[in-house]
Design a protein that fits this description.
Elements: E1 3-10, E2 15-16, E3 23-24, H1 28-33, E4 43-52, H2 59-74, E5 79-83, H3 89-99, E6 106-109, H4 122-133, E7 142-146, E8 149-152, E9 157-158, E10 167-168, E11 176-179, E12 182-185, E13 205-209, H5 217-224, E14 229-234, H6 242-253, E15 258-262, H7 279-285, E16 288-289, H8 295-308, H9 312-320
Parallel strand pairs: 1-4, 1-5, 5-6, 6-7, 13-14, 14-15, 15-16
Antiparallel strand pairs: 2-3, 7-8, 8-11, 9-10, 11-12
């Protein structure tokens, strides 16, 4: 029988109501014990990594999670399941997809409803995740198994704030569907990210949102405060206001790398428009295109790349090497 390790981190799946609101109160062992059907799928053991709501997690916590995955692989498990809060699950999954090279699948899952809710979705999601982690067609990479669908970490995003079918993969679609008959593949499962030689980010990267009439004050404050890198959450295919566009050029001249990502739900940045703040103008200033990575994932990748490499060209190459990237010049 396959051996699967559950790494628990807290989140809604482990939370119950309290006088100050829902907070994690269930240990990983409690989550597994609540799903007796797991016994027919895999031999399951549990390690607690932390006990946090996901919006409280730090990069240090995710580095500890990566180390726990490596330990599990060294122990010979066939797969790893991570129980995690939904708010930042896609970021943690992508982080591990970038830094973990262990030959085991890492399957994240969680819940939109607390463990003591009348219609809690955590037990079903945990069963689905273990089924995926125990499937010998999944041999590496990070995934999110949620609401009967399996998404690759590279593409997945939280598409719905509270409904049980919380996740989607714009552009790519899910890797598989979990049915009553088993795990039905829609494409070959594997890591869809190019690994980076870093485990914990030591760089400070900030996201700058663009929008109607946005000025340059947030960027200037970030530069004055010693930021190491910037991600511009640009409108459309990578455009911003003239004032912010000019400030981006100044930041690049000062040696600060700036990655341009789109704030749109799907699609990629493209160097089309000229004029101040236009996507072609920003590219000519020396910005790094994020392709179709959303700003929050581009922030993780830039932080890890800055931690791993010494030159801006190496950082730029890290973005150009990403698998599945869609860029148009």
């Amino acid at each position: 029988m396959p051996h699967v390790r559950v790494l628990s981190t807290g989140g809604t799946i482990a939370s119950t109501a309290g006088p100050q609101g829902a907070t994690p109160s269930k240990a990983g062992d409690d989550l597994v014990a609540a799903v007796p059907e797991l016994e027919a799928v895999a031999t399951v053991d549990v390690e607690s990594v932390c006990d946090q709501l996901s919006f409280h997690l730090s990069f240090s916590d995710i580095a500890s999670l990566a180390a726990a995955v490596d330990r599990a692989a060294d122990d010979g498990v066939d797969g790893v399941v991570v129980t995690h809060g939904t708010d930042t699950m896609e970021e943690s999954a992508y982080y591990l997809d970038l830094v973990v090279d262990a030959p085991v699948p890492i399957v994240f899952t969680g819940a939109q409803r607390p463990a003591d809710a009348p219609s809690a979705d955590g037990p079903a999601n945990l069963l689905q995740a273990v089924r995926v982690a125990a499937d010998d067609r999944f041999t590496d990479g990070a995934y999110v198994a949620f609401g009967d669908l399996v998404h690759a970490a590279r593409w997945v995003t939280k598409a719905r704030a509270g409904r049980p079918e919380g996740y989607a993969s714009p552009d790519a679609g899910p890797v598989a569907e979990v049915t009553a008959d088993g795990v039905a593949l829609r494409r070959e499962p594997h890591s869809e990210s190019v690994s980076l030689p870093a485990v914990e980010t030591t760089a400070r990267v900030e996201i700058l949102p663009s929008g109607l009439a946005v000025d340059d004050r947030q960027l200037e404050r970030a530069v004055a405060d010693g930021v190491d890198g910037l991600v511009l959450a640009a409108s459309g295919i990578g455009n911003t206001t003239p004032e912010l566009g000019d400030a981006v050029a100044d930041a690049i001249d000062a040696g600060i790398p700036v990655v341009v990502a789109t704030r749109c739900y799907d699609g990629a940045v493209s160097a089309r428009y000229g004029g101040p703040g236009g996507s072609r103008t920003l590219r000519d200033h020396g910005t790094i295109p994020a392709g179709d990575l959303p700003p929050w994932k581009a922030r993780i990748k830039l932080g890890l790349a800055l931690s791993a490499y010494e030159t801006l060209e190496d950082v730029r190459q890290a973005f150009e090497r990403q698998r599945g990237v869609v860029t148009t010049d």
